Amino acid sequence: MKPRVMALVVFTGLAGLVAAPVAMHPLAAAVAILCIAIGAGAAGAFNMAYDGDIDAVMKRTRRRPVPTGRIPASEAYAFAGVMSLASVLLMALAANYVAAGLLAFSIFFYCVIYTMWLKRSTPQNIVIGGAAGAFPPVIGWAAATGSVSLDALILFAIIFLWTPPHSWALALYKSGDYAAAGVPMMPVARGAGSTRFQILVYTGLYLAATAGPLATGLGGWIYAAAMVGGGALFALLAVRVYLSKAGETASAEDALYAVRAGDKSARDLFAYSIAHLALLFAALLAEHGAGAHVALPGLAG
C-alpha cells in the first residue's frame, strides 16, 4: 500500500479537512481520514500489481512484494479492488457523496489514467498524473463542507505543481532504472539538461502557487513564515540542480566526481521537497487546528 507515500497523502488530506471553514464531528473526521488512507493504499497496491514487470527490472523497486513473488498479482488486484470500494462507500456514509465521488475519481485517475496509460506512454506522465496526488486536501475539504471552494483548488494546485520538481529530481538520479524498464520519464525521453530546466520552471510555478493561501486568507503568519523561509531554500536547491550535472552520464573518469555531485543535488532537492510540502501543510494545520490562524492584513480583502 506504499505507506510512506500514504503518510503524506493522509497528512495533506487532514490539513484540508481541518482548514475547511466547517467543523466536522471528530469521529466522522477520523473515519474520513481513514478512508483517504485506505483509498491511497488501494491505489498504491493496484499500481504495484500492474507494474510488477517493470518493478522487477528497476533496482529501486525490485524487492517489492509482486516482483519477488511474495504476493501474486491477482491477489494484489483483488485487495486493491476491495479496499477501493470500501473506502468510497465508507466515505459516503461518514461524510458525503461529494467527498466520496472525489475519492473514487482520484483512485480511478491514479490507477487507470496514470498507471495504465500515462506512465508508460509519455514523458508528461508525472505532470498530468500528479493530479491524483493533489486530490487529498480537496477530498478532506469536501468531507467537511460538502463542496469544493477556491481555497481547496489552491491546495490542489500547490501539490499539482510541486509534483514535477519532486518527481523529476528522483528521476534524474534514477534515470538508469527508468531507461532499463522502458519508462519514458523526462530524463530518459528529453535528456537530463531539459529535465533540469523544467525543474527550475516548475519550481517557480510551485512557489508562486504557495502564495495563494495568503491571498485568500486561508494562510496566516505562520504559513507565511513557512512559505517564505522554506520556499527560499527550495528555490536555492532547484537552482543548484539546474547548474549541476545531475542525470548526466560520465564520459571520462575525471568527470565522475562532477556527476556524483550533480546527483547529490538532485537527491537533496527530492528529500527537501517532501519536507517543504509537509511544512506548508503543517503550518495550515497548526493555524486552523490549534486556533493560531491570523490572516495577513490587506491580502484577503
Q: Can you describe what's shown?
A:
With 301 residues, this protein is an all-alpha fold. It folds into two domains: 148 residues, UbiA prenyltransferase (Tetracycline Repressor, domain 2), CATH 1.10.357; 145 residues, no CATH class. 76% of the residues lie in helices and 0% in strands. The protein contains 14 helices and no strands. Helix 2 packs antiparallel against helix 4 and helix 5 runs antiparallel to helix 7. About 3% of the residues have low confidence. One of its GO terms (biological process) is heme O biosynthetic process. Converts heme B (protoheme IX) to heme O by substitution of the vinyl group on carbon 2 of heme B porphyrin ring with a hydroxyethyl farnesyl side group. Keywords: Cell membrane, Heme biosynthesis, Membrane, Transferase, Transmembrane, Transmembrane helix. This is Protoheme IX farnesyltransferase.
Q: Would you summarize the structure shown here?
A:
This is Protoheme IX farnesyltransferase. 76% of the residues lie in helices and 0% in strands.
